[in-house]
Amino acid sequence: METSVEQILSNYNDRALLSQASTIPAPWYVDSRIAELERLNVFSKTWQLVARTSQLQNPGDFITTRLAGEPIVVVRGADGTLRAFFNVCRHHAAAVVTQPCGQAQILQCPYHGWKYGLDGSLKGMPEFDGVENFDRAQHGLMHIRVETWECFVFVNLDPHAKPLAEFLGGLVKRVAPLGISKLHFFDRRTYHIHCNWKVFVDNYLDGGYHVPHLHKGLSSVLDYKQYTIENEDRYCLQSSPMVESNEDAATGATRKGDRAWYFWQYPNLMINCYEGYMDTNLVLPLDVDHCRVIFDFYFGDVSEARREYNQNSVAVGARVQDEDLGICEDVQRGLKSRAYGAGRLSARREAGEHLFHRLLAADLKQGLAHSAAAAD
Ligand code: FES
Ligand SMILES: [Fe+2]
């Protein structure tokens, strides 16, 4: 008989101390019912990064994306207000805005030409005379919560979610001194990885455990023994003093400063900072077995004179990423093996994973309890 979702969830003990804890069990990474539970209770209820504020600066600026399977459009109104909507026409459900980003004064559906204002209100419907009991005011685009923090735009599909600042919690004051909003976007790399999204997050949160083994170049600029791991609210900060290195010229030249700062915010956002440098990693589940990871690179100076330096810096990041990618795909294969159930955690290194697994378990168990209550 197939194991029930309740059973799969209850096989993880979220009360164990780090020194006694195991990872979430393998079925959490390979069972599509868990992926669906995550879609509804994690990605549909948490604040999710969807854009940079610089993309939505002027009235009419818009971006489109998908979140938890939902088409979304975010647009700066003529009144300067930032708004987000389901990008679904109220006529017959076509996507109203079809470009990934741009500028518009009116949002016109390409199917039958319905027009919406930048505030989402329905402005016009061709050939709709004679239609009875039609209240135009009730047929605007459906609103989604949108808020900004630093240089980032977030949306939340849950109308009852707490405000973004409350969700981010202690992360806000921890990131503030780094001045990340002064940096400028430079480049994006997108990776499709044959692994569950949590495998990528786990790999990120192992407290540098894999760095000396997998990332020899990066390892040469970090003082690995001094690596610290701090958990608070829904974020984990992994940080390390930097050391001078001649071992790996490209890494040494492009990863500078006193410290490396690696922030993870539950569930799927990472913010990595060195002096004059930031990259963000957004991990998006595609299905139970695949994820997309979007790397955005930012620099203090994006002038033409710095282009080559910045490109080299992106290449160093891409090399580290390639090293991680192979291991993540290996792990996904291993998680399907009959030989594996769950693994223990290093008390010195893997506190971040412990936080991640407990936050996730809480959301999934609560989500399952709600859907059971709704079915009663
Ligand atoms: S579906 Fe948009 S106008 Fe018909
Ligand atoms: Fe890595």
Fold and architecture overview:
The structure is a single chain. This protein is an alpha+beta fold and 376 residues long. 29% of the residues lie in helices and 27% in strands. It has eleven helices and 17 strands. The strands form three sheets. Strands 1-10-9-4-3-2-5 form a seven-stranded antiparallel beta sheet, with no helix packed on it. Strands 11-17-16-15-14-13-12 form a seven-stranded antiparallel beta sheet, covered by helices on one side. Strand 12 (228-232) and strand 13 form a beta hairpin. Helix 3 packs across helix 11. The model has no long low-confidence stretch (mean pLDDT 96). Bound molecules: FE2/S2 (inorganic) cluster and fe (ii) ion (FE2). FE2/S2 (inorganic) cluster binds next to loops.
Task: Give a topology summary.
Layout: H1 5-10, H2 27-30, H3 32-43, E1 48-52, E2 61-67, E3 70-76, E4 82-86, E5 101-103, E6 107-108, E7 115-116, E8 122-124, E9 143-149, E10 152-156, H4 164-168, H5 171-175, E11 184-193, H6 197-204, H7 211-214, H8 216-219, E12 228-232, E13 235-241, H9 249-254, E14 259-265, E15 269-274, E16 277-287, E17 290-299, H10 307-335, H11 351-375
Antiparallel strand pairs: 1-10, 2-3, 2-5, 3-4, 4-9, 6-7, 7-8, 9-10, 11-17, 12-13, 13-14, 14-15, 15-16, 16-17
This protein binds FE2/S2 (inorganic) cluster and fe (ii) ion.
Fe (ii) ion is lined by residues 203, 210, 214-215, 320, 324.
In short:
The protein has 376 residues and is α+β, with helices and mostly antiparallel strands. Helix content is 29%, strand content 27%. The strands form three sheets. It has a seven-stranded antiparallel sheet, with no helix packed on it.
